[in-house]
Design a protein that fits this description.
The complex is a heterodimer of chains A (193) and B (476). Chain A has six helices and no strands. Chain A is an all-alpha fold and 193 residues long. Chain A has a single domain, classed as Growth Hormone, Chain: A, CATH 1.20.1250.20. In chain B, strand 1 and strand 2 form a beta hairpin. Chain B contains 15 helices and 19 strands. Chain B folds into two domains: 112 residues, Uridine Diphospho-n-acetylenolpyruvylglucosamine Reductase, domain 3 (2-Layer Sandwich); 223 residues, FAD-linked oxidases, C-terminal domain (Vanillyl-alcohol Oxidase, Chain A, domain 3, 3-Layer(aba) Sandwich). Chain B has 476 residues and is an alpha+beta fold. Classes of the chains: A mainly alpha (193), B alpha+beta (476). The complex binds flavin-adenine dinucleotide. Chain A: It is found in: Cell membrane.
């Protein structure tokens, strides 16, 4: 059950992020001024990601994957609200750096969760299925968004994606919640014995 | 549980504020014209889909105190069509052909119609426009308001061919304006940059579509004035004309080629040529122009190819309508940091060789200045419009300049352009107004001695300054 919820939340996250990424460039075009600025925006993203991986790795061991993923979803939901209203290139740079950190959180925790949850013997099949569901969600999202931008504005895409992150956050939270409840009742049971 | 609620509460607050700010910025559309040097947020853009809508827009602005600006295709390059926080009226959809009389050779069109709309309508009747730009992408309202000129050499400027028009005034009334009715307004509104109200529909005189034989020759700039007087103006069979002078380093402002459009002997073959031409595949000229943007050898190559291409064209035939719909696509230039701007200078025909010498010495020191093309045409003396640029029979030199969009780029262009305008004014010349506001106020006054009178009339006629634009606000 909890593993399925994990897949569900990740699929929603992938849907949301693949909604914005192809169209994100349109926004950059409106705000950015040159190819070198494009380069900077993406370069800063990759660089902050790189720098934050080691730290995030340690954090996930200390406070748990689920909590980090929950933090990621909610932080993304909030950050995306800023995208429609940026007007200057430096603001894009700052957002890109924040997204870099958050992206690292997602990538790292996704993997640690899989590593901790998946049985080693069946790892191939399980991870294959995991990628199937998440990529499937992403593919659907990209196609649907292509139509959506025709009807809505680019701004609206960011708002929808932000809401999706909230949903994935709620799914993760329920996951955490039910796991805790389970743990507590298990503890009770062992105590009863 | 309360944590979730708290998050959702805060999130909703953030969502709401973000959306509010977003809507706020979106409802203030940012516009920029063909110059791309002046992007600004306007209050709103209102589509002119009919006379009633237009009247309502003006009435409403009179109630709210909003400023109004008028936009056609926005190929003017100095914010003549917009102003920060003003309501911009978009005329493009106001484009019907109202009346066409092939016998009288007149046509009445709504001012958002383009020359292309007119050409498609009248070409089957064997008629053509008398005066317009070399290209057909502009609206009639935009063309009237700057009083355009083109390749035709037998009429002066557009004003010559305008019979009458209707004007929606700043008070919301509709007037018929012609050389007989409200005649005092006529010379202010033609070439008046949309400052006296909205031109609704315009009645123009047309002429016969004709077949021309093209003749191209190359020459040295020093021979051009006398060639023009004798072989072009002096030969009634020549109906249209244009020339180019080299901007390539090897032949800079020395070598020229000219193209004359001569009334052909075989007019009965007009129908073989009179299909309207459409934009062609533009890969080659686009590529060459692209090279010339970046390097001197590119400029040399572009010039040599152009000369050869034009030479090959000599002896071929083209109809009047087709001469007046030349390609524009190859000029399209997409760069996020640079842009291409136009300048146009008028000099008396006799002054041409001296003028070019002075221009050359002024530009020789300007290594950075990226000049891509100079096309030369002819305008006959015309003093009908108050803001008339052709004080005598003049050559009109159109300069295409590649520059940076940044503040620094603007400053650099301004310095060179003001210098070129000084040279032009020294030769009793003037310059064209639909471009970026590089010229100084003093230069404006010298080139347009009646500019004071023009602004006074504007203030008298539109005391609330309901209609405005960058040109007016910068120079008034
Ligand atoms: C590539 C290029 C080539 C050009 N070639 C030539 C040329 O060969 N000859 C030449 O003379 N000029 C030429 N020009 C200049 C051009 O003619 C002017 O910029 C012209 O105004 C463009 O028409 P538009 O429809 O884009 O007008 P806009 O730029 O939209 O408007 C120009 C002015 O007219 C006013 N206006 C527009 N419609 C109305 C209306 N209905 N009522 C009242 N005012 C109105 C606007 O407020 C503005 O002040 C060229 C410009 C470019 C960019």
């Amino acid at each position: 059950m909890t593993y399925q919820r994990f897949i569900l939340s990740q699929s929603i996250i992938f849907m949301a992020s693949s909604m914005i990424f192809p169209f994100y460039i349109l926004l950059l075009r409106n705000v950015g001024d040159s190819y070198s600025q494009f380069g900077w925006a993406y370069g800063l993203f990759a660089l902050t990601s790189a720098l934050s991986y080691p730290l995030i790795g340690k954090l996930s061991d200390r406070i748990g994957d689920q909590n980090l993923l929950l933090f990621y979803s909610l932080a993304m939901a909030v950050i995306l609200l800023l995208f429609p209203i940026v007007t200057e290139v430096w603001q894009v740079y700052i957002l890109q750096m924040t997204m870099g950190v958050l992206g690292a959180v997602q990538k790292n925790t996704e993997k640690t969760t899989l590593a901790r949850k998946v049985e080693k013997v069946k790892a191939g099949g399980t991870i294959g299925r995991y990628h199937f569901w998440t990529s499937f969600g992403a593919a659907i999202a990209i196609i649907v968004t292509g139509y959506l931008v025709d009807f809505l504005t680019i701004g609206a895409i960011f708002y929808i994606a932000s809401l999706l992150y909230v949903v994935s956050g709620i799914v993760l939270w329920k996951n955490n919640h039910s796991e805790k409840v389970k743990q507590i009742s298990e503890q009770k049971r062992t105590a009863d014995i | 549980m309360w944590k979730v609620l708290l998050f959702l509460f805060i999130y909703c607050g953030l969502f709401g504020s973000s959306f509010y700010v977003y809507e706020q910025t979106r409802s203030q559309p940012v516009v920029a014209d063909a110059g791309r040097l002046l992007p600004v947020a306007v209050k709103s853009i209102e589509k002119a889909d009919g006379e009633e809508t237009l009247k309502r827009i003006v009435e409403k602005a009179n109630e709210t105190g909003d400023k109004l600006t008028i936009a056609g295709m926005q190929h003017s390059q100095g914010g003549q069509t917009y102003y920060p926080e003003a309501v911009m009226i978009d005329m493009k959809s106001y484009n019907k052909i109202i009346k066409f009389d092939p016998v009288e050779k007149t046509i009445t069109v709504q001012s958002g119609a383009t020359w292309d709309d007119i050409q498609r309508h009248i070409n089957p009747y064997g008629l053509a426009v008398k005066v317009m730009q070399s290209q057909n992408i502009f609206t009639i309202g935009g063309s009237l308001s700057v009083n355009v000129h083109g390749r035709d050499i037998r009429n002066d400027s557009l004003i010559d061919t305008i019979e009458s028009f209707r004007l929606l005034t700043p008070r919301g009334e509709i007037l018929n304006v012609s050389r007989q009715e409200h005649a005092d307004l006529f010379p202010y509104i033609v070439g008046g940059y949309g400052l006296f109200g909205v031109v609704l529909d315009v009645t123009l005189h047309l002429t016969d579509d004709e077949l021309y034989e093209k003749k191209t020759i190359t020459m040295n700039y020093s021979e051009y004035s006398s060639y023009f007087e004798k072989e072009v103006k002096g030969n009634p069979a020549v109906k249209m004309h244009l020339a180019r002078i080299s901007v390539a380093p090897e032949t800079f402002l020395r070598e020229m080629y000219v193209m004359d459009y001569i009334y052909a002997d075989n007019q009965n073959e007009l129908s073989k040529y009179n299909d309207l031409k459409e934009e062609r595949i533009v890969a080659l000229p686009k590529f060459l122009l692209g090279l010339s943007r970046y390097s001197d050898w590119g400029k040399n190559l572009f010039w040599d190819t152009q000369k050869k291409y034009m030479g090959n064209d000599s002896g071929t035939y083209e109809t009047r309508n087709n001469v007046m719909r030349s390609d524009t696509n190859f000029m399209a230039y997409e760069s996020s940091i640079r842009t291409e701007v136009l300048q146009e200078y008028f000099v008396p025909v006799d002054d041409f060789p001296d003028y070019i010498d002075d221009l050359r010495s002024a530009l020789e020191k300007e290594e950075e200045f990226n000049l891509l093309n100079i096309t030369i045409r002819y305008v006959e003396k015309s003093d009908q419009a108050v803001l008339s640029y052709a004080k005598e029979d003049m050559f009109a030199l159109v300069l295409l300049i590649n520059q940076e969009k940044s503040g620094k780029g603007i400053k650099r262009s301004e310095a060179v352009i003001q210098k070129m305008i000084d040279v032009t004014l020294d030769h009793d010349g003037s310059y064209y107004l639909p471009y970026y506001s590089y010229p100084s106020k003093e230069q404006l006054t010298e080139a347009y001695p009646r500019i004071g009178e023009f602004f006074e009339k504007k203030k008298e006629y539109d005391p609330d300054e309901r209609f405005t634009n960058f040109f007016y606000e910068v120079y008034k």
